[in-house]
Amino acid sequence: MRALIVCVALAFALAGMAPGFQSGRPPSRLDGLYDANPNHLWNRIHQTFHVRVAGDGSEYGLDTVDPLLWRETRHLLNGPSHEDAVIVLDEFLTARGERLIADPLRRAVFQHDLWTIFDWLASTSEGDKSARTALEHRLARVIRRLALPRRDIDALPDSYVAAVASGAFAANGSQKQPVLPSDLSTAQGPWVNLTVGGLEPLVPQHAAELSRSSFLVLWSVPGGATDTVRYLKTLWDFPAPFVGDEAFQLARDGEVRAKINPAMPEIPDGTRIVLVRKMLLIDDAGLIVPSNLVQSIQLRTFRRPHAFSELRMSRAALFAERSGGLRAVTADEKDFATFSAKGMDPFDRQRGRVPLNVPRVLEGCKNCHHVEFERAIDTVQSLRRILKPWPFVDSRHERSPRWYSQPFAAVEAKRRSHEWGLIEGLWQTQPR
User: How many whole angstroms separate alpha carbon 363 and alpha carbon 370?
Assistant: First the structure.
């Protein structure tokens, strides 16, 4: 069987194409992400930690941005999945697996993949302590071995710039194809990058759950950057941004939860908000470093009905230098949500061969932002961070560093985390 897999990969290579990804079908185990050979050690590690198999035999997770792991997941922590994880990591450590691929881009993404797994293991202490420890110790060593010099991280491609240059997401008259704004980082463009005072994240839930990434939030009100800043300052100057919400009374001392003042000026129709997620990496000095590798770009347009679109990183496209390494999430695309999920693992909970219920990706955007609310302004989850008493900050006077303030805030937040303290401690006590 293994020989057959290698032959299939070789046949694709001889045909001058990456296996499977040109046909539009989802990638499978026959597709090599990090190397054309599906049986390459790095591919097997990715499959071990990312691929999940449903009761009906369907496979999910290959080349997804985030692994299909939840707070209550027991996969990788017992049985064959744990044994396989230990075996492939030991193989990497024994065979000096970091030497198998020298390409800085592949090394960076592979390191980030495994850092995500480490943080998942370290983020909860619920049971399986010995299994978690066994994997944490091995992953910490592998992550450190994959680290790049800072100069190599700085030289990694800018996914956004490459995606715009590719023309793959330019306006083409079709409503089915998401359009990527080409002027997000243009100095005189219509977008305003929002930050808050100090080194606080503007989207705290994203920053907490996806703490190995930095997030940029950009607004564009119809009329351009000047009108955008004027509207945002109107919100910040509003004398009473919050009022008591009598519908949510807390048991303690009869307190009520605060809500956005209904008199707050509504978001102008046609306003766009973009959330850009970028990868953090660890350099060979053991420091957390921002990168320009985009993991996702989510765009929301305020009109009735609200319009959501999303681009996600594809390792296959990124390594092939195609469309900036991004792919469009289609209207009917289905995937499991791990962000802001309740922690229950649908794979661990499945019974028999019944197919799993997989939700549509873009429906999750609508559900999270409660688009059924009458006022659009009530659906902006990050709004509270740009109202008093938070300091009002925009980057219209600092166009050049506008893409950097939030990445460094993400680095500082990560450095203060429990998971980072754990991995630093392991580096100090383990051989490399």
Answer: 11
Residue 339 confidence class, pLDDT cut points 50, 70, 90: confident
Token reading at 416? 């203060």
Task: Look at residue 21 and tell me whether its pLDDT is greater than 50.
Answer: no
Q: What is the pLDDT, as a whole number, of residue 256? A: 57
260 in helix, strand or coil?
strand
Lowest mean pLDDT among 69-73, 116-120, 235-239, 372-376: 372-376
CA angle 193, 197, 198 (to 5 degrees): 115
Three-class DSSP category at 85: helix
Which position has the token pair 């044994």?
Answer: 83
Structure tokens at 171: 């306006």
Q: Tens of pLDDT along 37-65? A: 999 999 999 999 999 999 889 999 999 99
**pLDDT tens-digit profile of 231-244?**
988 988 888 888 87
Parallel, antiparallel or unpaired: strands 272-282 and 213-220? antiparallel
Indicate the pTM of the whole model.
0.85
Q: 319: Cβ–Cβ under 8 A, 6 or more apart, which residues?
A: 33, 34, 103, 105, 106, 325
Task: Please give the structure tokens belonging to residue 225.
Answer: 């950057």
**Cis omega before residue 305 (within 30°)?**
yes
**Residue 11 gets which letter from DSSP?**
H
The answer to whether the beta carbons of residues 43 and 33 sit under 8 Å apart is: yes
Helix, strand, or coil here: 307?
A: strand
3-state class (DSSP) for residue 393: strand
